[in-house]
Amino acid sequence: MKAKIIITPKKAVLDPQGKAVLNALEHMGYDGIEDVHVGRFLELELCGDKASMESKIEEACHRLLSNPVIEDYRVEWEE
Amino acid sequence: MKAKIIITPKKAVLDPQGKAVLNALEHMGYDGIEDVHVGRFLELELCGDKASMESKIEEACHRLLSNPVIEDYRVEWEE
What we know:
The structure is a homodimer.
Chain A: E1 2-9, H1 16-27, E2 33-46, H2 50-65, E3 71-78
C-alpha cells in the first residue's frame, strides 16, 4: 500500500521558490505561464491495515511532514 | 489550465532525505512504514492552447525543472 502526500504552500503565503522558477522559465523563453507554486511530494510505502494507517499518516502529516501554519497537504492512497 | 509536475528520485538513486524522514517517523513511534521517497511538486498555471503547452512543459521539465540523470518526472493535466 502506498500513500502519496502532496504538500503545497497556502495560497496566501509568499512562494519565493515558485517565483524563481517562473522567472527562470520566462528567461528561457517559455511564455504562457501565469504562475508557479512549488511544493513537496512524499511517497510512503506502508504495510498493515488501511484504516489504522490512514489515521497515523494523517497525524504524521500534521505533526512532522508539513507545517500546518503555512502549508496545506493532501494524501492520495494507492493499493 | 494547470499542469501538475511530480519529480521523484529514480529508484536506483540514493534518497537521503527519504531515509531521514523514515528515521524521524520511526523515532516518533509510527510503525508500519517500509520506505519513504521525497520528491518535488510543481503546479503551473497556464494559458494558451493545450497541445502547444504540452510540448513546452515537457521540454521545460527536461531542461530546467528536473535533472533527468537522477530524477523521473510525470505531468498531470487539469482543465
